[in-house]
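Example for tutorial group B:
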């Protein structure tokens, strides 16, 4: 299957697919209650996540975003092209990623949960452990309030949280599977697949479609997601910028 770099190149706000400019769409629809707003830019509170977006990556968009930040503060963007240097911004990190969509219903039909593996709901009381695990494994931006964005599930070994996955961005008809991570000492046990299977099942019960983002060079994760029924939809540029 050929990978389409941008399925809706001519899209306008009136006909744009819900997953195009998805951070912006989340902050203007199902997660608008989280939005901090200035003109053409929106962002989540930094305790929730560093994700931010604008209508389009032009001078007005970047100027609007700058008005939402303090000097030295960073945000994470999902762009459709590589960032071009602009005054007032420092590029912290950038790299290609994949947006993938789960549409074929394979997840729940061909996999049985490992015997004895207990999945537990995570929330405010688990926040410090969740941040610690995300800091170690680096699945993407994760803050002390990220758990407020949706359902988060985890697996413990003894009392220690060793794996988790949850829901992040939400737009009409779609929910993102995110923060899929396993402690390095507990990989190879199928924990990521167990947690993703349950998260996706819950998303489907709401008649929604699961999607996710992953670094393009994370071959092992991409292969797992394809086995779970995800297909590659588009390439994005994960970009972390700091206001100077």
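The residue assignment follows.
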């Amino acid at each position: 299957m050929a990978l389409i770099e941008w399925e809706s190149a001519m899209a306008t706000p009136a006909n744009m697919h819900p997953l195009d400019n998805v951070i912006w769409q989340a902050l203007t629809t199902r997660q608008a209650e989280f939005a901090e707003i200035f003109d053409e830019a929106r962002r989540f509170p930094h305790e929730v996540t560093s994700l931010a977006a604008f209508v389009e990556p032009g001078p007005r968009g970047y100027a609007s975003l700058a008005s939402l930040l303090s000097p030295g503060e960073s945000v994470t963007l999902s762009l459709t092209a590589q960032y071009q240097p602009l005054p007032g911004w420092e590029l912290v990190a950038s790299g290609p990623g994949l947006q993938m969509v789960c549409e074929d219903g394979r997840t729940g039909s061909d996999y049985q949960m490992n015997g004895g593996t207990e999945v537990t709901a995570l929330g405010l009381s688990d926040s410090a452990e969740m941040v610690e695990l995300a800091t170690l494994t680096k699945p993407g931006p994760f803050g002390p309030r990220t758990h407020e964005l949706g359902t988060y599930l985890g697996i413990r070994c003894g009392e220690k949280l060793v794996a988790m996955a949850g829901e992040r961005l939400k737009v009409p008809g779609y929910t993102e599977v995110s923060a899929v991570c396993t402690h390095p000492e507990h990989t190879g046990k199928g924990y990521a697949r167990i947690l993703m299977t349950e998260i996706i099942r819950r998303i489907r019960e709401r008649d929604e479609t699961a999607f996710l983002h992953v670094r393009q060079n994370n071959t092992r994760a991409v292969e797992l997601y394809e086995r779970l029924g995800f297909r590659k939809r588009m390439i994005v540029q994960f970009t972390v910028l700091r206001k100077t």
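Residues 1-12, 108-113 have pLDDT under 50 and may be disordered. Compare this with the pattern of hydrophobic and polar residues in the output above.
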